[in-house]
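Example record used in the benchmark description.
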Amino acid sequence: MGTEATSSAAPTPLSRYQAAVEDFARKIVKLGGFRLDVSIRHLPPADEVSPEMVVDFSGPDAGLLLEAHGELLNAIEYVVLRSVRLEETLFHKISFDCEDYRRMRVEELKLMAQVAADRVRDTGMPFPLGPMNPRERRIIHLALHDRTEVRTESEGFGSERKVVIHPASRQTRR
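Model output (structure tokens):
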């Protein structure tokens, strides 16, 4: 149940939030009656998508966090980050994970983005992806940032907001 640090670098803007994030996550676990351990991992900055701090959950009730595509994990993340008043510009720097679910989801989203971009390039037709949360939409946008033959755009509102991949030229093939 301890905090593990994988980096001994100088303090980052996230450092001032670590104790509050860890304490609040532990309170949720305890008050919710979950059989889970909470640990914090620090990662070196890798790219614009990768987090620098990961709040990991493990234990007998881990499966509960991952049901329904990780809805409970998402809810805990949302409540904790809002409760500690994390600056919104830092939201993507902290990730809550359980059994490597988030890491695998990021890889899945990057692959999905590339396949969809290839389809748009080949057909000349826009391709809408399913509704996603802001973090997942950001992953799609960044994954395709260097693909000059396509452009991405978020459309819709609330929980129905999604990314649409368009040909860069705005013209469609016939």
